[in-house]
């Protein structure tokens, strides 16, 4: 038998029901903040991602030449496509534009638990921010609200600022190429590799330890708010870093006011994507181990990508939908199961006409209904209805046929009553409402 490609998954009905329920909760949360949904194509021109999303992602692209010899790639993420869409079609809309998306992404990675070659991202972006501090804070609040609404427990948000980080690197004399080399090492927390590289680049031991200490600055919101001056002194070699810290401080005060929690400040966050310019964050769920990051995002600027002149600030995040599902499963979260409201059981062929009529009525009332057609006897039909997680069995036998009724059995309560044929759907609806 042919197997599915490595790193992809099939989803059984129970899993899809659970996934849709999670999607519904996330959707309701972002919509309650005033975000509207958009969709973009599953594949894009290769150029959209190469050298713009970052070295790691470029290595992981699922790219190919199409029949017209064009370089195409399956999307590895949605921020670049969203910005492409913005510049081509949405530019004239009133700002800030608050949008969300839910879509599959593809990365050629080594598959393992929580890391797939096809996975889903649920993300939100604010394009053309109105108030940098407030919009960034709102986005963090939204990301945490989504994760809370998902039912997940025990996740922790870490917030940093690549503006501070990059300004510190500049103040140590590192040029753009050296920064490009250093940032992924910082992102992965490979401090030994970073130290070796900086030694090679002839940085003094003092400068190297200054950088390593700065990267390892972790504190609570209150500690940052109260210790802002001390941190600013640490950054005194760079006016840009101090300015970025002042901005960061304003945003941190807002997330505290919004009650965003639990959050820690972590100046060592570099992110795997190149386009971030300001606040950056990641949310971890420790119990997922190596693939613990369930959400990531930050403030960015994609102007250069599209060679446009105007300054356009944006900020966004993407939740790793599959990792949230995995986390919920590990936490024994009780998911919704597929269900039927009614399972209609005609006891003979003569009863079929009435059964079809009742089933039509059930469908017409927005209820979920199906019918026994495999010719099972009563006992087995009821068992089958239970296996389908049906609320009610609607039995139509010879007796019911003569009386023009159906016997409606509540499968949870084991109670049965006769109901006029025309009233079956209304009866089930009223019982369901109780
Ligand atoms: P990212 O951190 O590369 O950011 O991906 C976002 C999330 O997608 C990760 O935190 C992780 O949960 C999930 N994820 C990534 N790769 C995989 C994989 N192979 N299998 C399963 N889940 C995965 C972005 O993609 C940015 N576009 C986020 C963003 C939006 N920044 C601003 N706006």
Q: How many strand elements? A: 17
DSSP summary: helix tally: 17
What gross morphology would you assign?
Answer: elongated
CATH fold descriptor of the largest domain: BirA Bifunctional Protein, domain 2
The helix content, as a percent range, equals 40-55%
The number of domains is 2
Small molecules bound: histidyl-adenosine monophosphate
CATH architecture of the largest domain: 2-Layer Sandwich
Going across the biggest sheet, name each strand in turn.
1-5-6-12-11-10-7-9-8
What is the top-level CATH class of the largest domain?
Answer: Alpha Beta
Structural class estimated from helices and strands: alpha+beta
Radius of gyration based on Cα positions: 28 Å
The biggest beta sheet, please? 9 strands, mixed
State the low-pLDDT regions, or none.
Answer: none
The fourth-level CATH homologous superfamily of the largest domain is Bira Bifunctional Protein, Domain 2
**Average of pLDDT:** 94
Q: End-to-end distance, in Å?
A: 49 Å
- The proportion of residues in beta strands is 15-25%
Q: Care to give the gist of this entry?
A:
The chain contains 17 helices and 17 strands.
Write the layout of secondary structure elements.
Elements: H1 13-32, E1 36-37, E2 43-45, H2 55-59, E3 62-65, E4 71-74, H3 79-90, E5 97-106, E6 118-127, H4 132-150, E7 156-161, H5 162-171, H6 176-187, H7 191-200, H8 205-215, E8 218-219, H9 221-226, H10 228-234, H11 239-258, E9 263-266, E10 276-284, E11 293-300, H12 303-306, E12 314-320, H13 321-330, E13 340-346, H14 352-364, E14 369-371, H15 378-387, E15 390-396, H16 398-403, E16 405-410, E17 415-420, H17 424-433
Parallel strand pairs: 1-5, 7-9, 13-14, 13-15
Antiparallel strand pairs: 2-4, 3-4, 5-6, 6-12, 7-10, 8-9, 10-11, 11-12, 15-16, 16-17
Helix pairs in contact: 1-4, 4-11, 5-11, 10-11
Bound molecules: histidyl-adenosine monophosphate.
């Amino acid at each position: 038998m042919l197997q599915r490609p490595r790193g992809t998954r099939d989803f059984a009905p129970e899993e899809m029901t659970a996934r849709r329920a999670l999607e519904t909760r996330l959707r309701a949360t972002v919509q309650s903040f005033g975000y509207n949904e958009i969709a973009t194509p599953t594949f894009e021109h290769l150029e959209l991602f190469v050298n713009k999303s970052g070295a790691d992602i470029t290595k992981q692209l699922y790219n190919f030449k199409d029949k017209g010899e064009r370089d195409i790639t399956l999307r590895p993420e949605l921020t670049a496509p969203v910005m492409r869409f913005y510049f081509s079609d949405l530019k004239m809309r009133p700002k800030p534009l608050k949008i969300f998306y839910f879509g599959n992404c593809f990365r050629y990675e080594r598959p393992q638990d929580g890391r797939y070659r096809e996975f889903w991202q649920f993300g939100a972006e604010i394009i053309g921010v109105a108030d940098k501090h407030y919009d960034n804070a709102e986005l963090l609040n939204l990301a945490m609200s989504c994760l809370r609404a998902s039912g997940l427990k025990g996740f922790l948000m870490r917030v940093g600022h690549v503006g501070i980080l990059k300004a510190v690197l500049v103040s140590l004399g590192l040029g753009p190429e050296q920064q490009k080399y250093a940032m992924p090492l910082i992102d992965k927390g490979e401090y030994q590799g970073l130290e070796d590289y900086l030694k090679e680049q002839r940085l003094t031991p003092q400068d190297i330890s200054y950088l390593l200490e700065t990267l390892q600055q972790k504190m609570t919101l209150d500690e940052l708010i109260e210790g802002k001056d001390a941190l600013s002194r640490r950054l005194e070699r760079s006016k840009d870093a101090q300015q970025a810290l002042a901005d960061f401080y304003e945003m941190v005060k807002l997330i505290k006011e919004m009650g965003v929690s639990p959050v820690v400040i972590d100046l060592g966050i570099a992110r795997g994507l190149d386009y971030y310019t300001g606040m950056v964050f990641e949310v971890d769920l420790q119990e997922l181990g190596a693939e613990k990051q369930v959400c990531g995002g930050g403030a960015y600027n994609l102007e250069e990508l599209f060679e446009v002149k105007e300054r356009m600030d944006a900020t966004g995040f993407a939740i790793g939908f599959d990792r949230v599902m995995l986390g919920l499963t590990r936490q024994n979260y009780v998911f919704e199961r597929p269900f039927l409201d009614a399972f209609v059981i005609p006891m003979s062929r003569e009863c079929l006409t009435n059964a079809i009529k009742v089933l039509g009525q059930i469908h017409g009332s927005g209820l979920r209904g199906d019918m026994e057609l495999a010719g099972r006897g009563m006992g087995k039909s009821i068992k089958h209805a239970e296996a389908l997680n049906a609320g009610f069995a609607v039995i139509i036998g010879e007796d019911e046929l003569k009386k023009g009724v159906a016997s409606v059995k509540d499968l949870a309560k084991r109670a049965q009553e006769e109901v006029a044929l025309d009233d079956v759907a209304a009866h089930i609806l009223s019982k369901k409402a109780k």
